[in-house]
Design brief:
The protein is mostly helical and 76 residues long. The protein contains 5 helices and no strands. It has one domain: Winged helix-like DNA-binding domain superfamily/Winged helix DNA-binding domain (Arc Repressor Mutant, subunit A, Orthogonal Bundle), CATH 1.10.10.10.
Length: 76
């Protein structure tokens, strides 16, 4: 993932909206949506919730990964 993509992913995980991300990073909302689509695709998911859960699992280590994976399967 690119540096910009990582920044957007970090802000996404904090619960910040697309318009707030765009404003903070001086990007258009459309650009943010493109980055998010790419992030979702790379993660194998298609929703904000899945991306945030995966980010939290990675941040907190493998102990949450199994629970998150189960939750992700349920959401799918």
């Amino acid at each position: 993932m690119t540096l910009q993509g990582n920044e957007i992913y970090d802000l996404l995980a904090k619960g910040i909206t697309n318009s707030e991300i765009a404003e903070q990073l001086d990007l258009s909302e459309g650009t943010v949506r493109v980055y998010l689509s790419t992030i979702y695709s790379k993660l194998g998911g298609n929703t904000r919730v899945k991306a945030i859960l995966l980010k939290e699992a990675i941040k907190n280590g493998c102990s949450l990964l199994v629970g998150t994976a189960i939750f992700l399967i349920i959401l799918k």
